[in-house]
Each structure stands twice: as C-alpha cells, then as structure tokens.
Amino acid sequence: MITAFAPATVSNVNCGFDVLGFAMEGPGDEVQLALNDLQEVRITKILPETVKLSTDPMKNTAGVAIRSYLKAIDSSQGVDVVLTKNLPLGSGMGSSGASAAAALIGINKLMGNKLSNEELVPHAMEAERIACGSAHADNVAPSIMGGFVLVRSYHPLDIVKIPSKANLWCALVHPQIELRTEDSRKVLPEKVEIKKAISQTGNIAGLMIGLMKPDLPLLSRSLVDEIAEPHRIQFIPGYLEIKKQAKAAGATGSGISGSGPSIFALGETREVAEQAGERIQSVFKVNNVTSEVYVSPISDVGARILN
Amino acid sequence: MITAFAPATVSNVNCGFDVLGFAMEGPGDEVQLALNDLQEVRITKILPETVKLSTDPMKNTAGVAIRSYLKAIDSSQGVDVVLTKNLPLGSGMGSSGASAAAALIGINKLMGNKLSNEELVPHAMEAERIACGSAHADNVAPSIMGGFVLVRSYHPLDIVKIPSKANLWCALVHPQIELRTEDSRKVLPEKVEIKKAISQTGNIAGLMIGLMKPDLPLLSRSLVDEIAEPHRIQFIPGYLEIKKQAKAAGATGSGISGSGPSIFALGETREVAEQAGERIQSVFKVNNVTSEVYVSPISDVGARILN
After folding, report:
1. ipTM of this model?
2. Using CA atoms, how far apart are residues B108 and B102, in angstroms rounded to an integer?
3. CATH number for the segment(s) A169-297
4. Per-domain residue ranges of chain A
5. Predicted model pTM
C-alpha cells in the first residue's frame, strides 16, 4: 500500500501558450494504491463521494495512466486505486493530469521505479487524451517533474525541465463558472498575424532568460500573451480588472491558467501572491462569481510519495 | 585619433526570426575617427575605394549613427571619419550595422564614454533606418554588445544580452548572388498558422535553455525556423542540400543569416565550423555560385577600440 500526491499545475503561462507549464506545491490529488492478485486495475473508491467521476479504469485518468504504464513495462499486475480528488474538475488547474501523475508516481514506486519521471509523462498524456480529447503534456509534465517545464515538441516528444532560479509564489483563483476546454479552444483562430507570432517568440525568450538568470523585471515584462488571451478574455468576467488588480498588488504577472476559467498570479513573496489572490477574488465577487483562492510556492518537486 | 572595429553579425538565427542575433569575432568594419573644429561630421574616405557607398554623412550609416549620437548628448562636436569597409554590402552579415556600431563605439570613446554600450543601440538603429528602411536592432545590438542578444520588444525598446554559456563557432558563407532585403521580406505572409507560431515559441524557448544551461543537443534540436525560412528557400540555390551538408559536417545548426543570401552554420569546434563552411561552399559551387567563407567563434565582445 502506498499513498502518492501530485500537485495542481498552471499551463500556458501567458507567452508560453501551449508549450509551458509549472507545478504548484499544492493543492493536489492523492491516490492510495494496493497491489491485487486479480491482474486488474480497479478504481475502488473516489473521495469525496460527491465527485462526479467514473470509476471505470478505462475512463478515469488515474486508471488509464496506470494501465498504459503497466502495458509499457509488460506487466499484468493488478492494482486497487482509491482516488482522493482535491482539485476541482474543469478548472484549468490541471486536475485530470494531477490524478494521472499521482497514480503514475505511485505505481512506478510499487513496481520498483522501472521508469524515470520523464518516462512517465507519455502515460499521463494517454490519460489526458481520454479526459480532454488531446494528449497534451503541459499539465502532466510539470505535475510529474515539478518546476517549470517546456514542451518543445510533440513529434518527437521533447520535454525539458527549465533550470529556473526564480523563487516565485503563485495565487491560483478558481471561479465557480463552467468553461469547457473545447469552447476555450474553439475561439482560437487558425492563423495569427506574423507580428504577433514574432512578439510571442520575443516574450518567451525573455521569460526563459528571466527564469534562468534570474531577472525578475525581465520575467515580468515578458509575461504577455498575444495569441490566446485576447480571444479568451470573453469567458472571464471582469478579466481586464483582474489583470489590473493583480498588478496593483505587485504581482510579477497574471493570466488565465490553462484554458481557464482559473486565474493565476505570480509574486516574489507569499504576501504579494496572497494580496493578488484576494484582489482577484474581489473582482469575481463584484461580478457575482464566487471563487476559491489557493496560494503556494512554485514547487521544484512535482508528484511525490507521501508514505 | 582613434580606430574602432565592429564585427559581422548573424540575425534571425532560425527560430529567433526577427528577435535574435549574435556577433562574430570577425570579420568586421573599421573606422578611424579624428575630432575636427568644423562642427561637422564628415566621411573623408571609404576604403577600399571600389566600395560603392555614399560619403554623405546623412546617407552613410557611420555618419548617421554619429550624428544621432552627438545630437543625443547635445554636442556640436565635428569629426572626420575614415571607413574601412571589410564586410560585403547586402550580404545578410550585418554590414550596414557594423559600420554604425564601430562609429558609435569610437565616437563614444572620444567623447568620454557618455553612454553605455546598450544606450548606443538606438543610434545604430537610426543608421539601419537609413540603410534598410526599418530601424531594426537585431544586427546592431549584437555588433555593439557582443554575444547573443534578444530584441524582446521595440515598443518600448527592450534589448537583452543573453547570458550564454555555450561555446560555439560559426561559419558564415557569403554567395555572390544579389538579394535585396526588400525582396526577402516581401515573400513573408502577413499571417502564419497558429500551430507554427506555437512551434516557434517552443523552439526559441529550447534555444534559450540550450544556450544558458548550456545543453547543446537541445540547442541543436531547437534551431528550426517554421516561419520565415520556408518562404526564403527559393532565393538560395541548393538550400536543402546546404542544410544537409552542414548537418553531415556535424554542425549544430544552420540557416539563412539575416534576410540572406549568406548562410551560417554553427559548430562546437573550429573544425566543425570549417568543415561545414567548406561543404556549403561546395554546394554553391555546384550551383555555379562563387562564395566566400568566414569562420570565427561567436564573440562575447562586440564592437571595440583597436587603438
């Protein structure tokens, strides 16, 4: 029996649209795994019981990830999974990915760490394919590997942990509005102005230098998204005011987490992140939207064994 | 009397299209400056005398840069300029920028280094505006500052020297074909597929990590240009074969230097760069194009005073 945890993640991160993500220290999802003799992966329980998720191991991301992993190491081992779902579904906080990441870290430990953390990523991507319809890596890679992770390419898969030296805190604000990833993607154009594409490359280069040097003012100036954000503002009530308030709180940057509706704000201290989180929550409140705020450092450690 | 030198530069650098450039150690342009009492900037001579460049200080990039600089420091000082033009014109090697960079380093020294190297860049950009019709910085910034330089943004101007730890050599091959910057820009579309824009951001992020970590295999994988190169292949005879031969020589990457027609190839050693240069020259030869090859380390020092 083993308990594993994997954190929420923020993907996209402004100019890092579709190629970047980072891991929170928490919150996150937990799994309890116990090997069984049935050669079967079973989701025996999901907590809290109010969570509407399938216990079918071919539909639940924890189950899909474990099945993909066991197949890869050519094992017919069975395992019972209890999933404690702390992350809200469809929140843009990497919820589906965290369950898969925790499950993979856990099963890998039970099987004698046959794969490296990086090698676990494709199995979590299989789970994302089931959950979201596309095998994206920008949530699962940071949830497994921790820190800031670049998905440079999918064909071939090229995932790079960024040697960031920036100490940053993050406020993640989850508003009670429903936003389907599908709708959030649908509004993106097939083509973008070449000027904006160039601007985005300049900004992500600045972001990389900002993280690695580190150079926080440069990092802050670089946290701009010219490609996705302008089309997604419509889904977030009070979005422009949210950005304004995050800045007023001293945030290094802010934006839509993943494909939304959650909002992230980065700060150099816990206080700044907390302040930004509160102010963002206030804007939602003015717009009659209740929200929850999570504040945590960006964690260099991702999914981990708890006991 | 003072002599100053500024090196050739490679701008764009694959995925760094329109935001990145680096400085060679050489070749480069030289200026000799002598203060005069005429309150006038004069281009008294251009060497070799076969070079077709205006000696009108309002048309010559060295003259334009010095005039812009003197105006900025509110000086009516006059200066005589002898320009030794070693870089071929319209080559994609940052020729116009190197003359301006050398002139600025020189005049700044004569005036008591009133501005920092970074502060010289806008005056060199004014010279580029005269030479190329647009005040771009991706040649002049590395020629002045050395190393790899990011132009993150023009409005406001945000120029960042990249703390690269990668030791690289560069072969620069200049073929005897005429290619006007204007024509090279004209073929670019106004819009690009969002997928390609995303791919380009992934690659430039990988390039930044590759330079700074350093991680040369990652750097190599990231040296891809999905935005400009496909449209410019048409201007370079044998381009696909050139890429193939550079790779066969062990080059870390290769591509069009600036808006062409010169080709650059990067290597981890002088030998690899030389090999790549020779092979590229051979491809040009097969296509009945004569070319010149320059091999030098990428230099962390840009424009400099020679005496």
Report:
1. 0.97
2. 10
3. 3.30.70.890
4. 2-162+300-305, 169-297
5. 0.97
